[in-house]
Every structure is written in C-alpha cells, then in structure tokens.
Amino acid sequence: MKWLLIVAVSVLVLYSPIAESCSFRIKGGDLIRCGMTKIEVMDKIGNPDMRDRQSIGINTGFGRGGRTAEAWSYVVRGDIGGEYYLTVMFSGNKVVEIESRQARR
What is the helix (H) or strand (E) element at residue 7, kind and residue range? Predict the structure, then answer.
C-alpha cells in the first residue's frame, strides 16, 4: 500500500510541469489554457498587442505542405509576480502553446 502511494505521488510530480506548461493564470484568477478558442482568449484578456503569422514546415511550391500558426502577444498582469510578456500560439482556432516571461527580469 505504501509503494502505491509513492508511485502515485511520483507520477503527479513528474507530470505536473507538462500540465502547467500550457496554461497561464491572469490577475483575477482566470486561466488561459491549451484548447481554448480565439474568442475565449479575447474574452479573457482582450485584443492582442501584436499578431504574427508563422509558416511552419516546408512549402513544396504547390500550395501544400507545412502549416500556419498565429502568435498573439500581450503584456498582462499575472496572478503572481506582476507584469508578464505572454505569447499565445494558435493552430487553426485553438491554443496550442503558451509562453510567458516576467517583465523587468
């Protein structure tokens, strides 16, 4: 029984950074997370300060190959630690990646 508890705690500790890496808690407790739509993100943190389209992959020259991702950049107040530079990456209409860096650090 004790070993089962150790295994369960180990799994939680090992996989918690993965779950955390695709979310960001803004001031007021709202959560921006992977899988949200563009409308849901705009509803929580408004229009982005900057939008950028990125082509990912190889274009074969026939209009096929690769994919396009869109990056929305913000300066937001985080739930902890003040202001953050936040980049939300979309593939299609869904959030696929969130990067944050504390401002003035």
Answer: helix 2-20
Tokens of 50: 């900057």
Contacts of residue 45, defined as CB under 8 A and 6 or more positions apart, other chains included, come to: 26, 32, 74, 76, 86
Per residue in 61-72, pLDDT (tens digit) is: 666 666 788 999
For 83, the token pair is 């202001």
Q: How many residues does the chain have?
A: 105
Q: DSSP letter at 80?
A: S
Distances (CA, A) of 23 to 53, 62, 86: 21, 36, 11
Tell which residue, 17, 16, 69, has the closest CA to residue 38: 69
Backbone angles phi, psi at 80, to 5 degrees: -135, 135
